[in-house]
Amino acid sequence: MTDGVTDAALWARLRAASPARIALGRVGNTLPLDAVLRFQLDHARARDAVHAPFDAEALAAALSPLPAIVVASAAPDRATYLRRPDLGRALSPAGAARLAQAVERDPAVADCDVAIVVGDGLSATGVAAGGVALVRALVAQCAGLRLAPVVIASGARVALGDAIGAALRARAVVMVIGERPGLSVADSLGIYMTYAPRIGRADSERNCISNVHANGGLTPEAAAATLGRLLRESLRRGLSGVDLKDSGEALPAPFSKTGQHG
Fold this sequence. Notes:
Radius of gyration: 21 Å
CATH class of the domain at 55-237: Alpha Beta
Structural class: alpha/beta
Strand content: 5-15%
Low-confidence stretches: 248-262
Order of helices and strands: HHHEHHHEHEHEEEH
Mean pLDDT: 90
Number of strands: 6
CATH superfamily of the domain at 55-237: Ethanolamine ammonia-lyase light chain (EutC)
Number of helices: 9
CATH topology of the domain at 55-237: Rossmann fold
């Protein structure tokens, strides 16, 4: 006992404070059967999320009446996507052509304030579960801004948003993507915002809002509200990434070698 608290009560308190697998008990020299089965189930869910097929067309239909453009990365299949992250960061020739055609048909598609991209990432399960609600919440936060059609990208890594945003000449790109699943949550979404997207942007030039899911994570509305504050400050200051704080307050621009703000 510790200060009148039994060991069992202390471990129970710790278990209630964390989703981590702690104080599971033991049977002989191994874990109880129910703990083993729960671990195997969560592991299977995580693996399924990584390999689940992504129905981009169904997502586009679910987002109606929002206009949407469906593209793919340069990864030809899921197995290649998992082995070659670089291909998930580049548009396929067909995807690049589709965006170029959209701009040619309607020049208003380009030179927008914000391009919202939805990518399967490492959890198509997460996009299927919460993608529509999150995109609608983000669109609501972008009231008054010029939006490109939502771009739905399969085989996507985060940096694919840079190529898409550049093709649409967007001032900023917002990538909604399935996050790497874990043993606690397999259907989480992340949001990545980049000002002045272009191929070759570094991760330090993005802002990330993670853990958007229904299992104790951020709600779509809360995540979108945070993104809305960051996005408007980003457009006002002309920056994103480490110089833009989650509070919505940006740090001063870095000094150049001459001592002036760059």
